[in-house]
């Protein structure tokens, strides 16, 4: 019984600590696992479950162990030609850490999937912790250069809350807000959450979050069957008018700065395009380890190609040059999940991703309107543009597919009765 209580506490802690994404754990030798405090809690949960559980679901064992093992073996095979290289240990570490990340993805998914009731109860608390982060760090300017803020500087110009940057904070706020709206009944709390979520969305400083959210709404209006054609036309007109106003008021200046400095755009554009180039050279993907040397070998070629396609803008190579000069593979990566894993696993990943999205879109198209459907679309767009899947985004998948299974079971029961 006491073990179940401890597990309950750990799951609750995992959810409540989701907003903390810039803590001292990043400097404790556990790499990317230290980015979110929730990852540390997840590791504690896994250790406890393994220590006392005597029987396991076979399907879950295959997913939790089989898929990470396959990705590790494939990645290892891809770096064998670098066996004599001084960088071989770095590439091996990338293979291992990538497989661990895949394992943790499934581990978190099933941990939350088995405890949706705890999730439902703790999400509002996580939302208020995130709100507290905004108040303390962005309004009172407290907490910087402390254990809860390692990377974000004290003079950070955009909103960041307990996260290291605006994009992470805005994504987390939008996600927690929509999840709470999905579950929350109290109207006053809903109004507070909508007002704060809207404020962060517009003024948080994350172009990716704002654009992804608007595209998600557009997709929902277009694909759902629950809105007739006339309402769709009316909603689309309103959508485009609002989008134009938001773009003009909140995004134009930011994009002008990006194009004038041309550093951020050049880096993100180059690394995203790199995934397409690597698909040509490695149709089955580079694996986790070989991505590092192939990044170094091809990023300049991709940058030159991008500059040739966009001769009007003089793109700056500074940030890419800085990444290449760091050594140890630091900073080498693609800034969104879809293109990163497209580079890692090529055509197999693309096939799985398309089938996954197709199934999800089919459900969204026929089900009644819900906040979680819009949130799933928001996540789907985000992984194409700026977001790397983390603890927060996995919860979206849990809630979405839990609802999918509930509806599928309800429909099956209804058919039997009829």
Automatic annotation (TrEMBL):
Transmembrane segments: 5-24, 30-49, 61-82, 88-107, 127-144, 156-181, 193-221, 233-253, 265-282, 338-357, 369-401
Keywords: Membrane, Transmembrane, Transmembrane helix
The organism's place on the tree of life at top rank: Bacteria
KW Transmembrane (keyword) present: yes
Keyword Membrane (UniProt): yes
Protein name according to UniProt: O-antigen ligase like membrane protein
Lineage of source species: Bacteria, Bacillati, Bacillota, Negativicutes, Selenomonadales
